[in-house]
Design goal:
Blueprint: H1 11-20, H2 22-41, H3 51-57, H4 59-73, H5 81-93, H6 100-127, H7 132-151, H8 161-168, E1 170-171, E2 174-175, H9 176-194, H10 196-206, H11 208-213, H12 218-244, H13 257-267, H14 279-298, H15 303-325
Antiparallel strand pairs: 1-2
Helix pairs in contact: 1-15, 2-14, 2-15, 4-9, 4-12, 4-13, 4-14, 5-6, 5-7, 5-12, 6-7, 6-12, 8-12, 9-10, 13-14, 14-15
Length: 331
């Protein structure tokens, strides 16, 4: 009889479960609060929500957040994602593109620039053993200066079709940017969960020395995530510039997108200490920030209050995640 008796779940197991999913739970609660608030102040506005618009307008944030999640999971930081977005956009927009083949070639060259930035970051941090925060901060300043020099304060527009395809084209009624972003989220999520290198990323973030003792090529994986992060930021930048058909001198870096990138990952449950988090949480954080931006747009919020409102929502989500997760969620 005793063998068939099911042991009730322990309270500690329940709290650990809450801690593991605290980001998602907090995001659901924040969503509910936002929708209730909007319904109270303007019931009609809810009818205008369009998930296609939310994702396509936040493609740069979404893909940069994926790359940042990789870096954070191994216990690193990369502040240069916004500067990569700006530099790649400026490089592609100011390079002569007389034929379709040339246009496509320049787009791939832009991605190669992103990969080169990630490689340099990885070499300095992993091989040079320099502080990741300082290295990527210095890289951000360097890339921002190069970007300003390329565009000379101007804003190129009327970009070629190959450049704008990812950001503005549609397959039927669905934006290409939404499809590409969703596919990348799914593939990276599956990669982290089932691929050996994906599991190695978690192991490195959890305990680097233990991962090295287990035979994982720690340095190679760490360098790889910096390259992947910069490439994903470059793709996101191409989408954003294609969506608005222009490149602003302040795009990406000047807009402070890196803060939203970190916020999207962290409120989705990705630990800044490394080794914990997933793409579902990161995607949820991106969607939450996208919904907030759409609410502010629909309600005609004054531009000078938008940053304050964004920051308040992020802090609320983080505090709520801490309360839900209890001590197990403490960083």
């Amino acid at each position: 009889m005793s063998a068939m008796t099911l042991n009730p779940p322990r309270r500690s197991d329940f709290r650990v479960g809450l801690a593991k999913n605290r980001g998602l739970i907090a995001i659901v609660v924040v969503f509910a609060c936002l929708l209730l608030f909007v319904d109270l102040i303007s019931p009609v506005s809810l009818g205008y929500y369009d998930i296609n618009s939310i994702i396509s307008s936040g493609a740069a944030l979404a893909l940069a957040s994926i790359g940042q999640t990789f870096v954070i999971l191994v216990g690193g930081f990369d502040l240069s994602a916004g500067a990569v977005i700006s530099l790649v956009n400026s490089f592609v927009a100011t390079t002569p593109q007389d034929t379709v083949a040339a246009q496509i070639g320049v787009v791939f060259a832009g991605l190669a620039v992103g990969a080169a930035v990630g490689l340099v970051n990885g070499l300095l941090i992993v091989k040079g053993r320099l502080n990741g925060f300082i290295v990527t901060l210095g890289m951000t300043i360097l890339l921002a200066g190069i970007q300003e020099g390329i565009v000379k304060g101007e804003s190129p527009f009327a970009l070629p079709n190959a450049f704008s395809y990812l950001g503005s084209a549609y397959w039927g009624k669905i934006p290409v940017s939404l499809i590409v972003t969703a596919v990348i989220f799914v593939l990276t999520g599956l990669f982290l969960r089932y691929h050996r290198t994906g599991r190695a990323i978690y192991a490195i973030g959890g305990n680097r020395e233990a991962a090295r003792a287990a035979g994982i090529k720690v340095n190679r994986v760490r360098m790889g995530v910096y390259v992947a992060g910069s490439v994903l930021a470059a793709i996101g930048g191409l989408m954003e510039a294609g969506r608005v058909s222009s490149v602003a001198s302040t795009q990406g870096y000047g807009e402070g997108i890196i803060f939203a990138v970190f916020a999207a990952a962290v409120i989705g449950g990705v630990s800044l200490q490394g080794g914990r988090g997933n793409m579902v949480g990161a995607a949820s954080g991106v969607v939450l920030l996208g919904v907030v931006q759409n609410i502010l747009f629909l309600e005609n919020a004054p531009n000078y209050w938008i940053d304050a409102i964004d920051g308040g929502v992020i802090l609320f989500a983080l505090i709520l995640a801490r309360v839900i997760g209890g001590e197990a969620s403490a960083e």
